[in-house]
Design a protein that fits this description.
The chain is α/β, with parallel strands linked by helices and 146 residues long. It is built from seven helices and four strands. The radius of gyration is 14 Å and the shape is globular.
């Protein structure tokens, strides 16, 4: 979905922030839709558990959905966004640019999961820009709105 929305390279660059998380850091997990959460939900259960297991840190995880995306992101150490299937590319780009402008790394569910499960390098080998963002750990500016 990140590739379809044109944001994969930024999501890959932002995912490295997971390994820099510290005790007490605030993580925003954002979903574009307002579906009913289910037992074992990926955003409210699985991602927080994987983050805590990967980092070994006591993280403060906050969830938002739908239009509830905060204007002020500066207090967050990382934003992990859903695939944004219910948001258009412009809205997703706006969210990514706001995070970037406030100095907050941002990634998405799929990229974060692939990173924490160790399959991200293999997943991006055929995508030169994403592979470079991963191997060099570089910050990549969000694309301009068109």
């Amino acid at each position: 979905m990140a590739r379809h929305k044109g944001l994969l390279t930024q999501a890959v660059a932002g995912v490295r922030a997971i390994d820099d998380l510290q005790d007490g850091d605030r993580i925003l997990i954002a979903e574009g839709c307002t579906h009913h959460r289910q037992c074992g939900d990926i955003g409210s259960v699985k991602l927080p558990n994987w983050l805590k297991k990967r980092t070994g840190k006591n993280l403060s995880i906050e969830l938002v959905s739908g239009r509830g995306y905060p204007e002020n992101l500066a207090d967050f150490a990382l934003v992990i966004h859903c695939g944004a299937c219910m948001l258009n590319s412009r809205e997703m780009l706006n969210r990514m640019q706001r995070a970037e402008a406030q100095g907050v790394p941002m990634t998405n569910y799929g990229t974060a999961i692939a990173y924490m499960k160790g399959i991200l390098p293999r997943s991006v080998t055929m995508l030169p820009d994403a592979l470079t963002a991963y191997t060099q750990g570089q910050q990549v500016p969000a694309p301009e709105r068109s």
